[in-house]
Design goal:
The chain is an alpha+beta fold. It has one domain. The chain is built from 3 helices and 3 strands; from the N terminus they run E-E-E-H-H-H. A hairpin with a 2-residue loop joins strand 1 and strand 2. It is flat. 3% of the residues are buried.
């Protein structure tokens, strides 16, 4: 069980979040990175630039700094709740 974990939303953009289970059923989500994805291989050189590389370095840094195994897995397990199940 981790105290903090990395959440990613992927489409034609990638957004990175640090999610934390702070209290019972209460998640705090911090957005800390956003990348726009190229639509074609022709635009790929535009995607690879210093700004995007810095964002990817930030993502790596946040992951290695915050996404660690909890020293209190029992407390984290007590705070967790199942997601809502939608019936379609």
């Amino acid at each position: 069980m981790c105290i903090h974990f990395l959440t990613v939303n992927i489409g034609f953009a990638v957004t990175f979040y640090l999610t934390s289970l702070d209290h019972d059923r209460f998640y705090t989500i911090y957005e800390f990175g956003h990348l726009d994805i190229s639509f074609s291989l022709a635009q790929l050189p535009v995607f690879i630039n210093l700004k995007n590389l810095n964002i990817l370095l930030l993502v790596c840094h946040v992951f290695w700094k915050f996404c660690k195994k909890s020293q209190m897995p029992d407390i984290i397990q007590q705070r967790r709740r199942l997601s809502v199940q939608l019936l379609i």
